[in-house]
Design goal:
This protein is about 30% helix and about 20% strand. The protein is of the alpha/beta class.
Length: about 300
């Protein structure tokens, strides 16, 4: 059994935006009593198997809350193995589902959104066997992964992206943690010529503003949306800071509980340790206020 070497590791400190071919990532550390199930297939689409790594909390008096982590990489790069800093969630008694999803060249938009939804639905469907609390599921992602977390959560009970994993569940995630994610792709459209990852991911839809609007999280905000915690740097060169400002404003206007931490002068992640620790504390207090932890 591996031991958690750092009690409270910043949850995103090991996130890498772009995975390099041939990189070998160290195993994810987890505490005594936890159980790892790696490369669990949560959805099959044609010949492609979507997989997740599960780190399941010890069985206690009640099922554990769970966080679904979604890596970034512009919808074209990245691997789940690059994400391994879940110490805060382990401290709070969470199980963790660290997922991969279809990117280019496997499939263009909206395949990644559909996969994020299927991961959420898989955990709800198998909550009893995995000892998970389906009413305490938190979605979390960075960059493109944050876009997918927002889409999967803000869509809510709408099944429009669920054709690959039909179900009869009421899909209501308890919260979303958004790390500098794109929220309004229409507003970002002028940048697309300089950011080929977005253009490539949109594929045949790259000039279709109706489709781009359809896959923009900000357009799914309603009074029924789950609470959202946001982190963004003011000097982000890839995802404009205004994307998070606009999302926060729309959430507040809809009456949705939201908090946002701004990193003055911060870029696209890679923040100073002091800011990382500050956000860690904000995550813990946010989840505690919502009752989304295991005391």
């Amino acid at each position: 059994m591996k031991r958690l070497t750092v009690l409270v590791t910043f949850i995103f400190i090991t996130t890498r935006l772009f995975a390099q071919e041939g990189v070998v990532y160290p195993p994810t550390p987890y505490p005594p009593g936890y159980t790892a199930r790696l490369n669990v297939v949560y959805c099959k689409v044609f010949n492609y198997e979507c997989k997740m790594d599960l780190y399941l909390a010890p069985k206690g008096s009640k099922p554990a809350p769970v966080v679904i982590n979604i890596h970034g990489g512009g919808w074209t790069n990245g691997v789940k193995e690059s994400q391994n800093g879940f110490g805060l969630f382990f401290k709070l008694g969470y199980s963790v589902a660290n997922i991969e999803y279809r990117m280019l060249p496997v499939a263009p938009a909206p395949a990644a959104i559909e996969d994020a939804r299927c991961a959420l639905i898989y955990l709800i469907s198998n909550a009893k066997e995995l000892n998970l609390d389906a009413n305490r599921i938190v979605l979390m992602g960075s960059s493109a992964g944050a876009h997918l977390a927002l889409m999967a959560g803000l869509v809510g009970t709408n099944t429009i992206f669920d054709s690959d994993c039909p179900h009869q569940h009421m899909v209501r995630p308890a919260a979303i943690i958004d790390l500098y994610g794109p929220t309004d792709l229409v507003a970002m459209a002028p940048m697309f010529n300089g950011y080929n990852a977005v253009t490539n991911w949109l594929g045949p839809h790259k000039g279709d503003l109706n489709f781009i609007r359809f896959i923009s999280p900000i357009n799914f905000v309603s009074k029924y949306s789950p609470p959202v915690l946001i982190l963004h740097g003011t000097n982000d060169p890839l995802v404009p800071y205004q994307q998070s400002v606009d999302l926060e404003a729309k959430l507040r206007a809809a009456g949705v509980k939201t908090k946002m931490m701004t990193v003055q002068g911060g870029g696209h992640g890679g923040f100073a340790e002091a800011k990382n620790l500050e956000f860690n504390a904000l995550v813990e207090s946010f989840l505690t206020e919502l009752g989304l932890y295991n005391p």
